[in-house]
Batch of 3 targets.
Target 1
Amino acid sequence: MSAPAARGPSVAVDRLVKRFGSFTAVDGISFRVDPGEIMGFLGPNGAGKSTLIRMLCGLLRPTSGRALVAGRDVAREPEAVREHLGYMSQRFSLYGDLSVLENLRFFGGLYGVDGREFSERSRWALEMAGLVGREATLASQLASGWKQRLALGCAVLHRPPILFLDEPTSGVDPIARRAFWELIQQMAATGVTIFVSTHYMDEAEYCHRLALIHRGRLVGLGTPEELRQTTLRGVLLELACEPVGPALEALQDAPGVFDAAVFGDTLHVVAVSEESARSGLPAWLAARGVRCTSIRTIEPSLEDVFVQRLGGRDLQEGGAA
Amino acid sequence: MPHADDVDAVRVEGLTRRFGAVTAVDALAFRVAPAEIFGLVGPDGAGKTTTLRMLAGVLPPDAGSARVAGCDVVRDAEPLKTRISYMPQRFGLYEDLTVDENIRFYADLFATGRAEREQRATRLLAASGMSEFRARLAGQLSGGMKQKLGLTCALIHRPRVLLLDEPTTGVDPLSRRDFWRILYSLVGEGVTVVISTSYLDEAERCHRLALLRGGRLLLCDTPARLKSHVRGQVARVASPRPREVQETLARAPGVRSVLLVGTALHLGLDDSGRIPELERRLAAAGLPWDSISRIEPTMEDLFVAAVREAEEEST
């Protein structure tokens, strides 16, 4: 991978706004990303994530505010911005009825990688993807792990300092997925900036920092660890109760309980503290015909973080994305 | 969960389906008890969709048998249709019909009475927070809302067994939680749910699950029991210099695997008693770290361990 084009932040976004008519899709978002960072975008459908990414890719002109990508202004130099980007989505990136080599040639043509540079880069991509000797295989006939590595190879053929990944490993075999993320983390270690857009919390775990976007605004920004530690109002408890249905109902107005939800055979409860739950909840539940057999504190998942950060912020939107 | 042999909601034995040279489903066997949420969990190509299509009676097996809601999927295909509901990945919603019109269409298809239809639709739409969108065109709903409308249509004739093929793929975590809340309330009414997913973290919400890979059953049990069978321990190290920590700890005794996950490392250990020794090594190497703590193995850890074990056995 090449070194980043400019010193300083790889991406700097300052009070970026995009309006469509009376609808504000992106509403004053600011952040900076350093070279070599893996930054995740999380948010519900219609939150403004794709609009933001399209502006950062120079595909959509901001209404106001500024975004510098690899030192270029996305509004003034969209073509220059696009030359510095790679884009990969697990589901749509490759041409299934083209061979491995034809896919590489196609993307090489698209990004202006030719001659000696192309032979060098395509060899690198084939080795990275483990596809040496299978150049003539149709992309549609590759197993998902190889397909995804080939798509990555195509996306970075022109050595972009910034790479966008859209749910890159959804549906991919876990062993191939781990190998893929190892590769992405190695790329980041050489200074490539990686953006990941996902609904998939297992992918979010691999990000150095996460940006939570809701209704066009940034509602959380930090490392997965920071978000886990600072989001919950209290602690997350796992309760084993019999029967589960009435337990859920009884917990809705139990003292010291903020939230309760069924999770498999158990209940996940957000409460003030484990001590207060232990001293109060078993009796509260018993009085309502529910036996509580265990209470223990568990670590919130990133999904818990996501739901808590966005929960209560008017969830009955349901409109078109 | 009750699990008497004669009351299985689903009973699958030796189920096999080939497409040309590919065995998509290979001698699958499992049982699902009434009112259970049973997960078919695995990556693309694991055989999830093929299995569900056979359970729904729309694809004949090459070998083996499946009974669903008391019906043999081959011999009793007609009565099966009224007792189950099958929601494929691309559920047939009519985008230029409204929410209400879609529901009416499916109610007519299954000859559900008008009064029952109305009562059921009202309750299901309220449960999914969609009451105010009944006049909206289906094509104008968000992804999560479309899935909830699909579920409402699939449930309008009170099926005993609900077969769902990756209903939450591409759905954001908030809508996903809503979706699961509805599933839990259904099993409270006695409905049995068989659901497929490639999201391993979602598998933990099932009562029991089958981990599938390449058409074969890797493991089948409750999430808690599956996790208790993972050999050794998993620990997490947070450090501002994770790559160097990785190099230092990879060679330490008792460390079976090191996985870099963002700003943290996940260590596969033979015993959590190794942690103090690992801390000494980091201190000796002058590397900073915030904590080394035991964490629960994830479903992905479990899946990877099961695949490795299966590979060791076959070599």
Note: Chain A touches chain B through 53 residues (CB under 8 Å).
Target 2
Amino acid sequence: MPPDEANIFDDDFLVRLEHVRLQMSKRFAGTLRAERRSRRMGSSLEFADFRNYVPGDDPRRIDWNIYGRIERLMMKLYEEEEELDVGVLIDCSASMHWRGSDASHSPKFLLARQLAAALAYFALHGLDHVALWFFDSTLRAESGHYRGIPAFHDVLRFLRADPSGRETDLSSSLERFGRGRRRRGLAIVLSDCLDPSGYERGLSALVGRHFVVHLVHLMDPGECDPSQSGDLLLRDCESAQELAVTASPTLRRLYREEVDRFRGGLKSWCARHNAGYSFVSADAAFDEIILRDFRRDGLVR
Amino acid sequence: MNFLFPAAFFLGSLALPILVLYLRRPSRRMLEFSSLLFWQRVLEREPHRKFLGRLRNPLSLILQLMILLLLLLALARPQESSSHSHRSTVVVLDMRARMQAPGVFQEALLAAQDVVSRLGPHDEVAILGMEGAPRIISSFSSDGKELRRKLSSLEPSDAGGNLDEALVLARRLLDAKPGEKRLIVIGDRKAPASDDAEQITVGKPTDNLAVLTLAQRPLPASPQSAELMVRLGNFSRNASNAELELSLDGKPFDLQRFALSPGEQRDLSTVIPKEMLASGNGFLVARLTSEDALKFDNSARAVLPTGQQLRVLLVGEDDPFLENALKADPSIAVEILRPESWRSTLGAGFDVVAFDNWLPAGLAFERLGSEPSLFFGRTPFNLAGEQIAPDFLEPSESNSPLLWNVELGDIRLTKAEKFTVPADGRWRTSIPMRSAGEPMVMALEGPGNARVVAIGFAVADSNFPLRVGFPLFVSNVIHWLAERRARSEAMLKAGGTFFPKDGEEIRKDPLAQEQVAGETEPAPSSQTPFTVRKNGFYEVRGSTGSHWLAVNTSDAAESDLRGAERQSEVLPFTRSWAALQPWRWLALAALILLMIEWCLHHRRVTE
């Protein structure tokens, strides 16, 4: 049975979160210490490199073992660990609430909120700053900034909200997010990317502002391979636009090819712009998404 | 290619409503979808669908239009036709007894139906059957259905015969027809002297054992007994063992075994004593107990005279010698009539009429009828009364049936008259006895099975009545006179025609096997000439009673299947499919296509 709104974050869900860790691929500068390694050399216990001693350096960091072997003063450099600023953007448009004829799985929006909760949990566990947003045609709600495990309950309280979505506008939402963030960090976007105006502009706004972007692309199985056939009058759940279609096997095959083409384009765009990409089908098991797909795609460790 | 019903193409207008039905858009099912993004892109990438998109289920439409086209073609009845000229075809179908070999006649019918099925709109076909004599099964007709119906009702007869008569008749039929002519002979082997005919041969060489002949005659020494002669034939490629069973009125009384080499024909004879013929119908059947390819020749039948006496009317004054000689033979029942009581109509009820030294007024040789007659003394051949010098009576034909067991030594005549031997070529004359070189006993066989014996001396004018041979001679004469008639009426070859006499009628169906030993049942009969096609016993009813006719094939050529040859190895199954008319193929194709369309529709492939 798929989870419903009432038990979206039950105890079983919370227990599963303890088994995974967020995995980052880049180091970022930050003001607070955290488990994330920065490009700056600091005072943590992680060795980074050697360099020649220059006057003014802290004599406590001179490596006397090397001086004993080569009689030169060498400074021992350590990586400085910093906190990570993690922003989770959740698409709450009408298309995310849509579900195909198969009722055995949850709508995309419910799964997106569970995944957002998991990612926030991992970030809070790593002493990172976490903030969450709902967006559709614009940024709809912001959770505020959380740090530390105790704040996770606030995260869940925020995610339990179910803002009724409207049309998707990735460009407007993500540009506004990028402009409003003073600190750069990891931006995780959970969306179906069904924006008629395209996804490139919005994602580029994040990449251009030096966010590390990871796109979690959610799709319903009914979107990937529609089971309906015959003469249909399709109505867009966001724009209410209607389209007459005779869903023959040939047309359905072309549709599947178009979806594959769209997914391939999205994945290659992310690869070209050094952004992460994970595809999530709404009927996939939550554990497998975290432990297999996100690990495979480098989002978690 | 011609179409017998081209008006069917007007039904092609049905394609229009079908097209309209596929162009018409039914109310679509409303369905909410997450985004039309991909659908719009698909439709944009397939611009031709804007045109085809007007048609619902184009594959289904194409299939249904093809079905309609096939049905229209089938209704139009296409026919192969090399030319538009009139063509007349005569099919001579061999229906002789040998076509009864397993599967052979069915193949022949299929071949004939194949010819009929290829009839063009200007073609005519006549069908002749050959079964002893040629028979017109169907005159020239273009109605294929009627021709096939007549063909399907045919079955081979038990008759033999020669195809030449059928070919002559077929050529005569064709001569009366204009245009292209075609003669087709269908049989189990090629017909000789038929170069102008197309031959279709069916069948294959088969081994066969046969009873070729069954004949009977009264035993000369004991006319009430019967002597049988049976001829067996082995028409096999290997030696065969035959077991012959003889039965009388359904009761077997003899069983003999023979080993026959390939191609051998063997005769055997046996005697049926008079005690066995004292009662019953006299139905004699010679039957081979083993089964083989042909059934009709595994048995032959004959009718034996049983419990019957020859009725003799003796017309004359008191003649104790002749009366006692006739009464001495228990197979003869004699009735005596004074000359003054004679009427010409009285002879019809007797097997033989004997005139003892008396001749009806006006009876001459030219006025002799078909009734067997015996003349003593005064005969139609010595009306001139020319006396000859009396002398001894001498046999001139020692093997004459009139003289069997008759000793003629020292028989002297006291008075005799000279015969005038008839010069009519229709009569065959033999002279068993002479005296002083002159014919003294004449036996004549004439038209209509007529037999006459004339004796040129009166009984009292010789010492012959005092001899032992006299009653034997009288008995021989009576039995010879009656034999031809009885024998000719009791046997017939299959395919022959029986001509009933006045007041006679013949059963159309032979006696069933189980009825041979029991009572007969009423059956349709014919009073007109009747061609007998099946072997068996046929009852002939007349005003004075009934007698039986035994019908046999008695033709070795019909039993010999070694010369059969098949033209090709086309199996009847494939030939029957090949015989299907084009419209049937088209209808079949339409049906198959309909089933395919139905399956595709239910699998939603055509949507």
Note: The two ends of chain B are 37 Å apart (CA to CA).
Target 3
Amino acid sequence: MRKLKFGNIPWLIINTLHTAVFVSLSGWSIYLLKVVTDYGLNRQMDKVVETAQLMMLILLGSLVLDTIGTLLKSKYLEASLKQLKNHYIHRLMEQDITQLQKEQCNIYRSNLTNDFDRFEEKFLLNVLEIIHMSSRFLMSVVLVATVSIYLVAVAVVLLVIFMIITSKTNTPVQKSEAKKSESLQKYTDFVNETLNGFEIIKQHQLEDKRFRMFVEKATQVQKDNYSVDKNSTKVDGLNSFIQTSIIFTMIVSGILFARSAQASLGSLIMVATSFGNVIWPLQRFTPVITQMKGILKVLDDFDKNLDRPVIDRHIRVDRFENLTFDRCDLGYDDDQFVILQSVDLTIEKLEKVLIVGQSGAGKSTVLKTIRQSIRPKDGSVLLDGHDIFEIVPIDYYSLFTTVDQIGFIFNGTVLENVTMYQPMDEKHVRDALNQVGLSELDIHEPLRNNGANVSGGQRARLMLARALCLNSEVILCDEIFSSLEQSIAKSIEKDILSLNKTIINVSHIIFKDQLSLYDKIYIVDQGTIRQSHDLDEVWSRMILTEA
Amino acid sequence: MTLTQLLQKNKKQLTFYLIGAFMTTINGLFFTFALSNAFGIIEEPDANGIIRRIIFVLLFAFTPIFSQMLSRFLRIGFMRDILIQVRTLAYEKIMSHTYESYKKNPKEHYMSMLVSDINLFEKDFFLSLLNIIYSFGSFTLGVIILTFISPIIAIATLIVSALLFTVTKLFEPIARKTKKLTQEANADYNIQLTNILNGMEVIKLYHVEENFKRPFESIVVVLENIKKRAFRIDEIQSNLNHWIAGTFQMIVYIYATYLYIQDAVTLTSLILVFNLIGQLVWSMISGFNFINRFKTSIDIFNRITQQQANPQAVHRMTFKEALRVCNLSFAYDTHKIIDNLSFNIKPKDKVLITGPSGAGKTTLLNCLAQNLSSYQGEIVVDEHELRTIQPDSFLKSCGYVRQNHFLFNDSIVNNVILNSPLDKGKFEQIMKDVDLYDWMMTLDAKENHILEQDGLNISGGQRQRLSIARELYHDREVLFVDEPSASLDDQTAQHIYDTLLSLDKTLICVSHRHLDYLSKHFDTHIELKPLGVTS
């Protein structure tokens, strides 16, 4: 992504050209200011009027150019963002399947929204500003050069000194900024703690103590902010002292120079105006560049997120015989904590397996391991005797279809949603829909707004129909009942269990009279998972929903 | 407290601030004087005159620097004091919520009130206040000065300012409309994006990447197109304003040159007019822009500090006879959780509430613990309806162990005793009762071991038991406990239950495990089913 940081280059070039023309025009009008002044001082009224007319024309032209500039600028931004975002999407689509976990979804989304917004504001717009500032600077140099080349040299030297001093004087401000962000962090942590502990604070009437602590933290933040302000006031004062000295030294000496009749007063006005144009942009230059450098980190993060890891897996599989957890300790990669210990679990082809447990017990840990989102901390997970992390990803993933509460429904017809654009016999799709109890649905009906026009139950059934059509061997059901009406959930469970597929259903909601339809039931509890053969035990441990 | 009241409270600092702010208006003028005096040098006939002019120039040029610094020092004290108070007010507002009203918004909502909203207020309020004072102050001063030089130019300046104001007003509705459109497009983009990103794995699995690039790209196109329009409207408005200002400056300059030729003004005045006009017109433009920002910042202030009145409860809590629940119903929006539930509890009763998830166990507990007040029916403690009992007196007699076990970033002992004085013997006994004493003694710092915020460095079971220990230490008459054994193994769970049941208190406990054991040891068993109750 970093290579593309300047966005759409053709539009950038057009914008640069436009800026050059626009700035030249405003340079011309500053030059005419000199001319008009000189005519005025020579009391040539007719020439003044003549020049004034030309100036008006130029001003009118600059309004037109300015408007065109806006159109070009907006075009550049639009084209660049489209290009960058589409590139991002393209790279995302190229990702290896093992990287495309649901957990990553938030990162991608915030990249494609907030981060791109920040990039637009802090980089792309600044690129345009830098071009504008540099052009104005050049224009001013040219204008001053028409008066005297020595003046340019003096001016440039003074400006360089000015820039160097400005960049050095900032240190005390940066130091107090650092202190401020530290106390701001403490403040934020405190607020966060208070909000998390709201109930406990109320419960134990700790409000007064917490209030005093809060005031202390808030005061510290503002005090540190005050010292930032104090320091930057001094620095600003110093800067404007230098700046004023430069400007007035130039102007006064210029005027004395003009008095000895070597330059016209008009030229002086021109020089002064040009300087005004230069000094301000120069002050902005350093902060803008710093900001741009800072935001490039966003692009580096993009690259990191889109980096394709080298996947070195060779074992090919094309069918599912069995999946075995062999004394696995399961937990998250970046955490020492083992959630489930010595997990032993075997799932044979066509078996219907139920995994139950209270929420938070670790059911999803099992599922995430099967889906390769996390690796076991100890022990291994085997598919037909092969370690699942050695199987070619696409082969492995093709065996499973996950049905969950969210589901992926896009703007397309029912047919397209089920087939995912795969060429397929319509009858096959109808059969699948019948099988999951969606026979009433017209397969050419468009689904809009991410499936806002289908109910939760229909959504789950559509996912099932897709799983059926796409012929994966194993269907993983991830808490599909929790947002459904009980009667619907029950009938879906019945439908699933009658399918000629391997079913792994993970749920904390179960139905007593349908427990016997499962081949195996595992209970996740107290940090491990064990098989239970006693349906009553499963039932009583859970205290479950009766139909 | 309204903003006006807040400002009145800080009268002294406010006065300094206003003095500081008005000083800035003079600064700009001084600079203009310096410049025009510099050009005046050319008209001076002799060396004395030149030196006099140069002294003027130096005086006018450097005074603003020092007065600018002084002005800032006068202002920042006020800013500091006001912001401390705004933060405090916002904090007080949040803490004045009841449990019920607090839960209506996610935590992030309150977080942003205390962090980003205040930052926004800080940025907008003071900046716009200063700029409004500066703009309109220097405008007024400038127009007065111009009137002395040329009344015509002064009047023309007023007319152009009115024109600029009109342009800004004309653009306002369309700018607002596109802003709204952009927001909507952004929200839509977000939804569509989330959906497609959720489907990435499926898309990949069936090799249909190409089919999905198009919808992906088309949502980008829609969003960027609307953003482009919004950008254009903003830019065109500001271009137009700048152009009007620039043109006016040119025309006035030419007119002033004409006056100079007619000997109606001096060279010094000519330069003064040129600079002044520029300054005036620009400050008008920015002044108008800042009015809107000022309004927004006041809205923010009101939003983050305005408290709603809490209903006044009058009765003290006493629980000597009975707690009677009569026809209790509770619904979240339209989703009914508890329907027509009635039962009685006597002091020292041990009450067990069970039921499947979603049956309303925690909701019932929250109603009884004065956390939810929007229930139908009655909960009467001795004589009084629960809602009329003063919260602080209620809290002095009731403890509540919640399902989420919050811990402060503080030592173990402080997390247990909180504000109360330490009774070491009692503390240690309680730690033994909840099976944490042995663990605590293995730690280097013992009871002074510091827990991370939210207790991230200890296990769920330890967090749970610390919460229980905290309530036991505070020794309330009535104890509400939600799922005391959720993260515990059987043996520990039994020990905890024994501890709880041995207390000489009223115990109201929710559980869905160990039912056989529990139902034998509790006096009353309330079994909730989704809608309906048996006892």
Note: Chain A has two domains: 2-306, 322-542.
